[in-house]
Design goal:
The complex is a heterodimer of chains A (about 425) and B (about 350).
Chain A lengths: L2 H15 L9 E8 L6 H20 L7 E8 L4 H11 L12 H14 L3 E2 L17 E2 L5 H16 L9 E7 L2 H4 L2 H11 L2 E7 L7 H11 L3 E5 L3 H12 L7 E3 L6 H4 L10 E4 L8 H11 L14 H24 L6 H9 L2 E2 L1 H7 L8 E2 L12 E5 L4 E3 L8 H20 L8
Helix pairs in contact in A: 2-11, 2-12, 3-4, 5-7, 12-13
Chain B lengths: L12 H4 L6 H21 L2 H27 L7 H18 L5 H20 L7 H21 L11 E3 L4 E3 L2 E2 L7 H24 L1 H11 L1 H6 L4 H28 L1 E3 L5 H14 L4 H25 L5 H22 L4 H14 L5
Antiparallel strand pairs in B: 1-4, 2-3
Classes of the chains: A alpha/beta (about 425), B mainly alpha (about 350).
Protein name (chain B): Branched-chain amino acid ABC transporter permease
Keywords (chain B): Cell membrane, Membrane, Transmembrane, Transmembrane helix
Main location (chain B): membrane
């Protein structure tokens, strides 16, 4: 090989790699760790588009109290090492919040974000113990955690079966992504199975989840559980639904967590997926003023990040919700620290004082889209409520009211215990929240 | 002209056996070490130290480990990810069970533990060779990752199977792990540690062990006839290689990501290290560094480079172009220089010896 050419190429690569982007000081900077490549991209893309479109809409309607948003994205491919690299690339003291959209990356970033004083918002994923604000001042898990999710599904099952006594002797299976994400609810489910007397059987599925034949033969032919829950993501979801249909498992007794219930998961399985259920904590469709505004101000202006048709789908709307929470936290922080671009540390105060009530939701144009959220110094989760939705072949229909997890009696003590163990291992003195 | 060793006479055996027998090489090495220890921490930003140099050094260590086994002893292994996981989880258990133990001792002990595991999984190599051995080491990969995933004991019963490095100082006042660890501390520790380990590896492969490994690699029957015991040669190669890989795994979990799950050491990790060894050059310590640089740095440089040229380009497009260019470059390198980057450097050195007169 020609050495001179090689040398020149190496020099050129080094030169472009050292170019660092410069930021303007009059905008509020928000980084985004998204994934638009890799095996989880089909689910990552609509979320990323919704996340970005909401900021475009805010900018098109005058910013947050006049402060424009500067959004920058990095592709993690749902890969933990790459997530750390992306975080280090995008982090700046003025970053409003980090939303890694991966439980594994969240785990890897908790210490880093805390050290860098950037709020880490893991919305409906991540480390459940992080909702203890005394040990994790920079981690926010609103509006719900996986432990709440597990409890909600069990509560829903109990309601369908006719009370918690009816759970005794029932068989419940958990099909989960064999990673930090899928393992998160197991402790809660084990505690619940002891409490209510149901049999819990666990079925890990290896990344990326395309091989589930053996799992579902065992579920469908051997174990025959009364209910099956799923903690899946990406191609694992649609594969599971197809395999469940292949062994004739009744779809209305198959309930996924909120990450296992999007259009991307059910459409590949076709009509077989009808009646499949999942949790959700926000509305679908476009009948909300804020989403209408995204359509008119962003998409009609030819500025949409993705195709117009995906607006209103489950994951797109979840991206909207995640962005909306960050914007509200910034707005709250601006009331405390002034209507100017803020540092991550200041936005954290906004997160901790976050109080999105119905009046606020109305003003945001998201009335009825999600539950009111209130965060306190000690509790970074909020109500933890979610509802069950069902796929009818064309759209997701809510089939239950908001289901309440047993936070006070069961989950909160578990969270505090896990947080205390973390604090002991890391030598952290919990701060005083009273 | 630049690289002419004419006039440098070796008057003793020690001089003849030096790692760098040519004066220019010694000067170059000294400059390189000075840049690595003094220049890089002063000039590089935290991003570069934290996400480029740290993983590069750790992967270089893992690649040295695999190079000892595959490059020097000729035993193909696909168990690197599993052995890295061993190192990481052993280190975690040791660090949490004995909080008073110094980090370096923890890393070395976890390397020793991995060496034992590696030697055990090396036993089949006494009977099977080549691709068949690769399949046997694949068993190690899947078994080990499964074990760390399955049994909660390894993660101190953490809810999600994630281990997280407890904060520890390397010298009083300088944290290597945890919240207060600075990128410069991490980098300087790794530079010294990896350089020392590489020096040991270099001397190991030049000595009696290395010669017996290479004899086994080149022709095992002939080696046996001249008196090398295949049992000890092969098992020692597995043990030493696993030691290096185990230490690299522990460093990965403790110094780079800080928290890690067994999923991080999937089969992809084994292939990643194997590619480093193949692209860098089989049977070369320098090649391990070059290969690690190629595999770790290039994707990040490509990604950043494209964004630096056009910041408005979509991240999806950047990732996809990155995959294509990276793949094409691997193929290109293997076509133009199948013996790896280390061989390229050797050719360069020979050309420099004659430069500027080509004949």
């Amino acid at each position: 090989m020609n050495l001179r050419a090689l040398g020149l190429a190496a020099l050129g690569a080094a030169a472009i790699a050292t170019a660092v982007p410069v930021s303007a000081a009059d905008t509020q900077y928000i980084p985004g760790l998204m994934y638009r490549s890799g095996p989880y991209a089909p689910n990552g893309v609509p979320f990323a588009n919704g996340f970005q479109d909401y900021y475009k809409m805010i900018n098109a309607t005058g910013g947050i109290n006049g402060v424009m948003i500067e959004y920058e994205e990095c592709d993690t491919a749902y890969n933990n090492d790459r997530g750390v690299e992306c975080y280090e690339r995008l982090k700046r003291p003025e970053a409003a919040a980090i939303a890694p959209l991966s439980t594994g990356i969240t785990y890897a970033l908790i210490e880093r974000a805390t050290a860098d004083k950037i709020p880490l918002l893991s919305m409906g994923y991540g480390r459940t113990a992080g909702s203890d604000g005394t040990v994790f001042p920079y981690v926010f898990t609103l509006p719900a955690t996986y432990w709440s999710g597990a409890d909600i599904i069990v509560n829903y099952i109990a309601e369908k079966e006719g009370g918690y006594e009816a759970l005794n002797g029932k068989k419940i299976a958990l099909v989960y992504h064999d990673s930090a994400y899928g393992k998160e609810p197991i402790g809660t489910l084990e505690a619940l199975s002891k409490k209510h007397g149901f049999d819990l059987s666990l079925f890990p599925v290896a990344h990326p989840g395309l091989e589930q034949k053996a799992t579902w033969l065992q579920i469908g032919r051997q174990v025959r559980p009364d209910w099956t829950m799923m903690w899946g993501w990406g191609v694992m979801n649609s594969t599971a639904i197809k395999e469940a249909a292949a062994v004739g498992y009744p779809m209305d007794r198959f309930v996924g967590i909120w990450w296992s219930g999007s259009e991307q998961d059910v459409t590949p399985a076709g009509a077989q997926a009808n009646n499949y259920k999942s949790l959700n904590f926000h509305g679908t469709g476009v009948d909300y003023p804020a989403i209408q505004e995204v359509l008119t101000k962003v998409h009609d202006a030819g500025n949409g990040t993705g195709p117009r048709e995906e607006v209103g789908t489950v994951l797109y709307n979840r991206g909207i919700m995640n962005a909306a929470i960050i914007v509200e936290a910034i707005r709250t922080a601006q009331e405390m620290h002034g209507k100017k671009p803020l540092m991550g540390e200041q936005v954290r105060d906004g997160f901790e004082a976050l109080n999105i009530d119905n009046a606020r939701l109305e003003a945001m144009g998201l009335a009825g889209f999600m539950e009111p959220i209130q965060i306190t110094c000690a509790d970074h989760e909020g109500t933890g409520r979610a509802f069950v939705q069902q796929w009818n072949g064309t759209e997701w229909k809510p089939v239950s009211d908001w289901v309440e997890p047993n936070r006070a009696g069961l989950l909160r003590p578990m969270i505090e215990e896990a947080a205390a163990q973390y604090a002991a291992e890391k030598g952290i003195t919990p701060r005083d929240c009273s | 002209m630049l690289y002419r060793e004419a006039g440098q006479f070796k008057t003793s055996y020690a001089k003849d056996q030096a790692i760098f027998p040519i004066r220019q090489d010694r000067i170059l090495m000294a400059i390189l070490i000075a840049i690595a220890v003094l220049g890089v921490p002063a000039l590089a930003s935290e991003y570069f130290l934290e996400t480029i140099f740290v993983p590069f050094l750790i992967f270089a260590l893992a690649a040295i480990g695999l190079n000892i086994l595959t490059g020097y002893c000729g035993q193909l292994s696909l168990g690197t990810g599993g052995f890295m996981a061993c190192g990481a989880f052993f280190a975690y258990k040791l660090a949490t069970a004995f909080p008073e133990l110094h980090l370096v001792i923890i890393f070395l002990l976890s390397g020793l533990g991995t060496a034992l595991v590696g030697a055990a999984f090396g036993l089949p190599s006494l009977r099977i060779k080549g691709f068949y051995l690769a399949v046997a080491t694949l068993a190690a990969q899947f078994f080990l990752v499964w074990m760390f995933n399955k049994f909660d004991w390894w993660t101190n019963y953490s809810a999600s199977g994630v281990i997280s490095a407890p904060p520890r100082e390397v010298v009083p006042g300088f944290f290597l792990t945890g919240n207060d660890a600075s990128a410069v501390t991490k980098y300087l520790f790794l530079v010294c540690f990896v350089a020392l380990m590489a020096l040991i590896a270099k001397n190991l492969v030049r000595g009696r062990f290395g010669r017996s490994w290479m004899a086994i690699r080149d022709m095992d029957i002939a080696a046996e006839i001249i008196g090398i015991r295949p049992l000890w040669a092969k098992l020692s190669a597995f043990a030493v290689s696993s030691f290096y890989i185990g230490v690299a795994g522990a460093l990965w979990a403790f110094v780079y990501t800080g928290s890690v799950e067994a999923l991080a050491f999937q089969i992809d990790r084994s292939f990643q290290v194997l590619f480093m060894v193949i692209i860098g050059g089989l049977g070369s310590i320098l090649g391990s560094f070059l290969g690690a640089a190629f595999i770790v740095l290039l994707p990040i440089l490509l990604n950043n480079g494209m964004l630096a040229i056009d910041p408005t380009i979509s991240t999806a497009l950047v990732s996809h172009i990155e995959f294509m260019i990276f793949g094409a470059l691997i193929v290109l390198f293997l076509i133009v220089e199948p013996h790896g980057l280390a061989r390229l450097w050797q050719i360069g050195k020979e050309k420099l010896r004659l430069w500027p007169f080509p004949h």
